[in-house]
Amino acid sequence: YQNIKSLLFISLIMKATATTNANIALIKYWGRRNDELVLPTNNSISFTMDDQLKTITTVEFSDKLQHDQLYIDETHAKPHEVERASAFLDVVRKMAGIKKKAVVHSQNSFPKSAGLASSASAFAALAAAASKAAGLNLSEKELSMLARRGSGSASRSIHGGAVEWVAGSSNDGSDCYAKQISPPEKWANLRNVIAITNSHEKKVGSASGMKQTIKSSSLYLARVKSVEGRLETVRNAILKGDFEAMSDAIMQESNNMHATMLDSWPPIVYLNSTSFEIIDKVLDFNLRYGKSVAAYTFDAGPNAHVYTTSKYEKEMFDILQGMSKVEKVMSCKVGNGVRILDKHLF
Ligand code: PMV
Hints:
There is one protein chain. The chain is an alpha+beta fold. Helices cover 39% and strands 23% of the residues. It contains 9 helices and 16 strands. α6 packs antiparallel against α7. Bound molecules: (3R)-3-hydroxy-3-methyl-5-(phosphonooxy)pentanoic acid (PMV). The site of (3R)-3-hydroxy-3-methyl-5-(phosphonooxy)pentanoic acid has 15 residues, from α3 and α5. (3R)-3-hydroxy-3-methyl-5-(phosphonooxy)pentanoic acid (PMV) binds next to α3 and α5.
């Protein structure tokens, strides 16, 4: 019986494919209380975006491999990218009790490392595909905790709709996970009009940037205190399905994070002059309507995510499209979380 069991195990194909979408934070994660376990200092809230911003990843574990191999968009990944994926796969191997190395193919529908949160969809898809290929059958909560180890924001990309990543307080990370707080169907009228102002890779990675901020910015502690109020405002507005009730808090939150970044030493500057022009345009737009019908937010990059409702979508799209330095504008809906696919990339 033992022999049959091991024969079956040997012939078992350890391969799986998953897809998921990038997310954009309305309340930001910028700072950790534990680096190795990726435990944040504060809760964060995001919307998962639609399939225009997705990653598909296939993982196969095999006895034949000496090293992990990673291909991103059909080309060999850079050594530091392979190292990061390998460290993440070590976490999965440890959970599954296996030693096999893996081949990973990952495909993005958008430029990676352009501040469009490719690490979020990348590690969420990798977590789902690798854990499934390794024979683990994780719940969405467990998947979000696993994805967190690759990239904090990836914990949120496991779910669709509006998602809150709970910081928790335990030292082992057992109460630190992401959960859906509102399903995508509830946000059918919400639009994220994205303006790409620079599609090149970002200069400062988020992990080292956060450390730099905590170490050197005198504004950081004030940020941690003030984020609580904005978190509550945004969460309550989301639960009510009321976009206007959260738009000012979204913009203040983005400004607050980028202010602490600028206050860091050496300063961390993700926004460019076009980002600031967009901030002006959105504020003017709201002034013209006499209410906050649009809200901008920026992650660790200069590209603007302007949230608004379908009623104002075209007007906002045309404003951003009309700016000479904007490379591309796309309009995105609220989308789904992780899905397992039958069709593999290789
Ligand atoms: O998940 P990371 O390590 O790429 O960090 C993400 C940090 C921000 O995008 C700036 C904010 C966030 O909450 O997504």
